Amino acid sequence: MNLVTIEEIRAAAGRIGAHALRTPLLPQPWATGSPLWLKAESLQQIGAFKIRGAFNAIASLDEPARTRGVVAYSSGNHAQAVAFAAKQFGIPAVIVVPDVTPRMKVEATAAHGAEVVEVPMAERESRAYEIAGERGLTLVPPFDHRDVIAGQGTIGLEIAEDLPEVEVVLIPVSGGGLASGISAAVKALKPSVRVFLAEPELAADTAEGLRTGARADWAPDRRARTIADGLRSQPSELTFAHLRAHVDGIVTVSEDEIREAVRTIAHRSRLIAEPSGAVSTAAYLFHPDELPQGKTVAVLSGGNVDPRQLADLLAL
Amino acid sequence: MNLVTIEEIRAAAGRIGAHALRTPLLPQPWATGSPLWLKAESLQQIGAFKIRGAFNAIASLDEPARTRGVVAYSSGNHAQAVAFAAKQFGIPAVIVVPDVTPRMKVEATAAHGAEVVEVPMAERESRAYEIAGERGLTLVPPFDHRDVIAGQGTIGLEIAEDLPEVEVVLIPVSGGGLASGISAAVKALKPSVRVFLAEPELAADTAEGLRTGARADWAPDRRARTIADGLRSQPSELTFAHLRAHVDGIVTVSEDEIREAVRTIAHRSRLIAEPSGAVSTAAYLFHPDELPQGKTVAVLSGGNVDPRQLADLLAL
């Protein structure tokens, strides 16, 4: 399969420019063991890395298609990313969300000027395609698209630039867009870097897939057990091919380890991580024996956590 | 009085180099009203801006004095800053703390390799001077020193570089080292910028002093009422002269406003702020009528908050 190239990722960086934040790579002097840096994508304007891929995908459309607008289905960070990016281009965006989506998330998406369409959970994907067809909009998928992967890959460019001596990169994995992009960038620029994924035990389809060499299919109910609600997707053929090509290993973490990592990141790193964003730090904290030693970057992919859940996570 | 110059601040930036983090200036798209950026000093390695002044003060010592080592009295961020900076120079540091200091803070300071001396609260300053005399150490004061002020001023350089179109800068004030340094830098580089201070109502000696034109002296017990435990000092002659020369106004905030600002920063900006660090955002959120409109930078000075206090602040 034709994998995303470093040239595509560099082109994405050029398109994205200052429309996404160049997030800081933050040294963590409290870390014992391998020296640790956090790549804090939680500090993006929408609180997650998804803005990079969404912006690159929209920027890559030809002018007439872009002007007509875009549609996406997501209740999470991808929804806000597409809404936020569309607003920067001044184009219409329709976001299809399950009708069980918390008010707060619906409002955050609408606040970026997007039209939010609420449908029963099972219909969200089909409804999005329907709307795309009816209105001539382009569907921006959450991860299964080269432009989206290339956009997320710009994180890898920044890591390699900001810490040229990096030895290990730890990335949360779900649909695999983030991990595909970063690993493609890092391996192209610095093949000696070891790329490891972090995944919840309760949604460990990628770990199983990489072990057997073929994508594992876990039922949505089974994946939905993890608190890491951004990590309940599974790789596509395209992203799985990237992971097979570029990834050196994968570590699974327990729910308690994820919770403890959220607390450590708050108390020691002074950052809010959503559970999905904390799995890479959980791998670092609780599974050092499964990881190579050396200068380590953990990608903190997002910080969008409901105030009530945050209060629960940080309660003593 | 001879105020700290932009040349001294530039020299400080040269000395500090990469030993303190160039903290990110983070856009806050959720902000209504004036566009808002947070200068997140909470992301410094020690969780607060104090590393800048401490490092510059130690770097400015002559070689023999520096080699003998330094002493400081503080139970808060200055203690960790001096310990952390001394470690980078490989020199001895003694930190004198009140014997009521929480274990966690004592351990954090000791973890940087400093010798921690616990004494009764009333004796900490005198004991620090005694130790300095006995052991030939140099005392690094928390704010009343040009090199400390110049070090904190490097924040102003970074703001002016990263957001050349900045119009308003909001700074927490206590002893005034931070506000003196930043205002000196910003006013030298961009005289049109309006510099405003933010102070707790319950420790509003600086507001009173700037109103009357002479330093106000509030009893320590009176200042100790605020939850913002890093804002219980008051300006020295040196820092007060800077504030009189450079500051355009001051806003006082209530305890409830400080608490609400900590919550907003956690939920919307995904950052942990200590109450002292949140007062500038509290001024932005709750006192817009007292502030000029325009592109606003609020300095988030620190993020060191006890886990129990954080849990209480974020409880719903």
| Chain pair with largest interface | A-B, 28 and 28 residues
* Shape field of chain A: globular
Question: What is the CATH C level class of the largest domain in chain A, in words?
Answer: Alpha Beta
Query: What is the oligomer described by this structure?
Result: homodimer
Distance between the termini of chain A: 49 Å
At the fold tier of CATH, the topology name of the largest domain in chain A is Rossmann fold
Give the spatial strand order of the biggest sheet of chain A.
Answer: 1-2-10-7-8-9
The strand count of chain A comes to 10
Largest sheet of chain A: 6 strands, mixed
Rg of chain A, Å, rounded: 18 Å
Order of secondary-structure elements of chain A: HEEHHEHEHEHEHEHEHHHEHHEH
Number of domains of chain A: 2
Average pLDDT confidence of chain A is 96
**Which CATH architecture of the largest domain in chain A would you pick?**
3-Layer(aba) Sandwich
Number of helices of chain A: 14
Derived from helix and strand composition plus strand pairing, the structural class of chain A reads alpha/beta
Helix content of chain A: 40-55%
Point out poorly predicted stretches of chain A.
Answer: none
Strand fraction of chain A equals 5-15%
Describe the fold and architecture.
- The structure is a homodimer of 316-residue chains.
- Chain A has 316 residues and is α/β, with parallel strands linked by helices.
- Chain A folds into two domains: 214 residues, Rossmann fold (3-Layer(aba) Sandwich); 88 residues, Rossmann fold, CATH 3.40.50.1100.
- Helices cover 47% and strands 15% of the residues of chain A.
- Chain A contains 14 helices and ten strands.
- A six-stranded mixed beta sheet of chain A has the order 1-2-10-7-8-9, with helices on both faces. In chain A, strands 5-4-3-6 form a four-stranded parallel beta sheet, with helices on both faces.
- In chain A, helix 5 links the parallel strand 4 and strand 5.
- The radius of gyration of chain A is 18 Å and the shape is globular.
- The model of chain A has no long low-confidence stretch (mean pLDDT 96).
- Chains A, B: This is Threonine/serine dehydratase.
- Chains A, B: Its cofactor is pyridoxal 5'-phosphate.
